Amino acid sequence: MSSKAGYHGVVLSVDLSTGKSQKIPIPPEDFDNFVGGQGLGIKILWDRLKRPGVDALSPENPLLFMPGPFSGLPVPSSSRTCVVTKSPITAPRKSDHSHASTVTYSNMGGFFGPEIRFAGYDGIVITGKAPALSYLVIDDAKVEIRDAGKFKGMRTDAFDRAILEELGDRKFKTVYIGPAGENLVPYSSILHTAGRAAGRGGSGCVMGSKNLKAIAVRGTGQPGVADHAGFLSALEKARKVLNGSAYAKSWAEQGTARGIVGNSKAGTESVRNYREGTFSEAEKIGGEAARRDVWVRDIACYCCPLACKKSGMTRGKYGGVVHDGPEYETGVMLGSNLLISDMAGLLKAITTIDDLGLDQISTGNVIGFLMEAYERGMISRSFLDGIDLKWGSVDATLAMIEKIAAKEGVGALAAEGVRALAWQIGKGSEKFAIHVKGLELAAHNIQANPPRGLSYATASRGACHMSGDSAAMQNRRAMLDSTGMCFFPTFEPALEEPMLSLLSAITGRTFDKAEFEKTGERIFNLEKMFNYREGFRREDDRLPDRFFEDAFTVGPKKGAVLDRDLFETTLTEYYRERGWDPKTSSPEKVKLKELGLDGLSS
Amino acid sequence: MKANDEGGYSRRQFLKGCGLGAGSLVLLGQFGIHSAAWALSGEPVLKMVLVDYSKCTGCRTCETACSASNHPVPVGGKELPGLGNPYYANIRLHNFNPDVDVANVCAMCADTPCVRACRVEPDGETGRRALYRDEATHTIRNDSARCIGCRSCAWACASQRTGTISPNPATGKPERMCTLCGGDPQCVKKCPFSALSYVEVRNNRKFYGQGPEKIAAQLARNWYGTADFGGLK
């Protein structure tokens, strides 16, 4: 039993350069102040990187796999693993440090985070670089680095089977990169179960830079809790709220894919490289169509009563097994945003992107940008290596996806993202290069949804649709992503009370609503401290010009466009609310003191 | 199973049906009603935890419920359910790529191949080997004091039936026989998707007594048109 209830009290630290691993104790106050998941990940990142400008792809940059205090306990929907590292994608407009970038965090479901806790750790910290492509096996206390040479270049679906065959036991839970990560495409993802991903922010690229193809974990233990009886009673309450509820059933029915039609109707979808908010053919790629033509199963992550993941199959030219999708982000980024309405073609693109280990969102955004630049005659067909990259073309999209993952021809530049493409192409293309701080925007369009614009502009990892539309929401989400619980069940307001009771019973520390938000605020501020130290300022919290200039021309929100003055006013108010200097966005000393972060200042 | 065109019977429903319906449909239809007739026919009625593979989402809540119920812990002088470490669960989720999840649990076999494989001589008084069927609960139990840890029961289960019985890695003594939680299986109760039921079944039912790999292959073929799970058996 560790000194801190609800935790093992240690993370596993592995240095791939030396091949050595050790259990590192975490101070109890770090669990109190940063909880786990994203929060504890940021704290460890801060402690390890004591200076700005460390190259994200250097051996020094730690790659963290962080479950939370809920992980490994049968708390509903507590399946999440937060991957935390320094971003290989983002950059400030100006900085004194050549490799300046933000923190990044990417949160995935499945079974990996709980298994880390079964194996006896509150997290895994990877540093260094293996001399050759390797994979890491963690079997309770036993840790081994093995050669992965024979898996070089293997796509994720095949690798998912191959690694288990090699390990000889399906109980191992695995995460891995595809060819894109091996090739150091900045927006590479880390895959799990062939269809779940820590997609955003380039964690797969960092993993690739460490010559780490995969991690396999198997465990037999479990952390204890502070108040056993209290835990059991809160657990029953949480289950009662969710199990069999209409709320849970609505997630099982269509998952996030419901939003493909819903947001199109609301005018808040990313369509035609964010030019529009409504897609006239959304029904063809929406949840209802998928339920009718594609999906055969509803799939849940660890102990989740929602089952929002879907698998199925398609037939014909693009036919095959579909591990997941369409869901909202993948369906919109590769569908509406590219004007692709062929369901089988869309799913082929989604499946290929996962198979290569790319981030679905950045990939869809990059291809949308190229389609627009091509349509406008800013780039020629030869620039695209002969690919006729027209709106709606599945074959051209598939060809471009392969080029990006291989960094071949035009793919080498496209792999660097829309910011780099716009610099290279020029001709005013920057206006429709849809990124913040270098990270591409996601499937929520903002001309008709200004609060989401604030989320994109101020999120700690660059354009993040999940960060939260206000300071208070950002604080709650940062905290939630530190617990191991998924965001999706928390739309159900009745879950809040049992969720707080569970957290209190596990950790022995009373979490009411205020303490929950306060802890989230501390986490968010530490992320900001990190980013500020790297050189990110107010002028980096900006949105692409398109949103202020190109009003929607179709749909229910026709005419919608963001107002630049209003955005700047909102931003100033946001900084004031945060206790940050409105001129520079620097967190004020008094705020850091209030949050107990003043001692960390550097 | 009959496709009903009028009802707008979709392709997906059809796929689901041919993979899984067999279980619940045949069972609840024929079994519930005809169990009395069965009993008269002299065929034993098996009451077990039955999985509807079309409803199972692979969430593993059943594992945690099983473990919590069967591994209680003393807290303040009272015995309370444990924290549900799935490692100690008697029901186990086997997951495959392409996405198939098979919950594997004791089939309560009437002919008990596991018991028949037990090498310990029957006790003169009770007639029991180390492994035996408890006449009151109908569950398979192991007399740990007499068990020699030879793993014959686990081998019999794996080669002839579901393979649920696992020998303890250290002692070789059998584990993971379903206890039915004293007649109120907690996995059934806690399943968020109503994929489990505690019902009477007949041993000619589709999937009955089969190992997870076999079941997964049949389901995958129906759902995805492939049963290539890679080389791991």
TrEMBL record, chain A:
This is Aldehyde ferredoxin oxidoreductase. The keyword Oxidoreductase applies. Keywords: Oxidoreductase. Its cofactor is tungstopterin. The lineage of its organism: Bacteria, Pseudomonadati, Thermodesulfobacteriota, Desulfuromonadia, Geobacterales. One of its GO terms (molecular function) is iron-sulfur cluster binding. Residues 7-221 form the Aldehyde ferredoxin oxidoreductase N-terminal domain. SUPFAM superfamilies: Aldehyde ferredoxin oxidoreductase, C-terminal domains, Aldehyde ferredoxin oxidoreductase, N-terminal domain. InterPro entries: Ald_Fedxn_OxRdtase_dom3, Ald_Fedxn_OxRdtase_N, Ald_Fedxn_OxRdtase_N_sf, OxRdtase_Ald_Fedxn_C, Tungsten_al_ferr_oxy-like_C, W-dependent_AOR. It comes from the Bacteria. PANTHER family: ALDEHYDE FERREDOXIN OXIDOREDUCTASE, TUNGSTEN-CONTAINING ALDEHYDE FERREDOXIN OXIDOREDUCTASE. It comes from Geomonas limicola.
